[in-house]
């Protein structure tokens, strides 16, 4: 058994090695406050983390709705999931401009190999889904897209979306809506390119690949529709045009006012989280038996929030990206229940249908497919390393 002193010595040596490596990779901490350095789970990436402030303005929707208690919240979710609902028109008070400087928890990672890091000019901008946070991309050893990207010579930028995790939690009804999330993502692209600031960590990039999952895929797709020159390529997962089973999946969430749970104490009542615990999370996000029980347990203990403002405005940002002509890859778990009812090949190929609807102008630059034995959170299934490889190989094939 190792002595406590030896363990401390090894920990100190590791800290010195990380500091030395980061000093060689990152020329500064510019763009981050309260910054710190870390490695990805598998050690392929060296990262700088902290808060970054993003100035963004958007035309949100004035939502005629007061802050809900749990009884009112449950009734609202019931109305949202009803096929006969008029809640969208009943609560729509017209356009409302919002703007601010928003503190986001963010992480920029480079290959830990200094020679590989020096050659990087492409960053993968990673946007997570609803009730998830940025840990989706570096979840555990063997479940890290950040590790896979770094091993292939790419940088990654991940962040907790507005109103999630360690990012700021503004008004969950009037502020944290789909339109503002899209504008924040656009501003992040500009920052990474060095067009809105001097970059982050002393780094800027000539190419930005948007990688989005679920709600993050919706926001990434919305950027390509509104700002078609932002991304050099996009890869989207957890997204189709089929919504027939979305209501059943969301019902499995059994959404509750988030501050009823101890780890969300202090945030406003318009933030919701899972009330159904592990069974509901498995139902919506995983396909049995193709996941490790420890990964499901960790997902359950780290599940995050979404907002009433987002739930009421997701539909308003969805539109085909008619002017976008760069490469696109739509990739879903074959057994995604949320957007495919558990079978993304029925009644038609849902992946191909989504590509055709969202990206009518990409032609041969478009690709769609599905990964076997995987549910909605496909990157947390046992085949994750192969799924990462398919995305990264596609990026390589497009010479990005």
TrEMBL record:
Residues 1-23 form the signal peptide. The keyword Transferase does not apply. Pfam families: Abhydrolase_6 (PF12697). It comes from the Eukaryota. Keywords: Hydrolase, Signal. It comes from Massarina eburnea CBS 473.64. This is Alpha/beta-hydrolase. GO terms for molecular function: hydrolase activity.
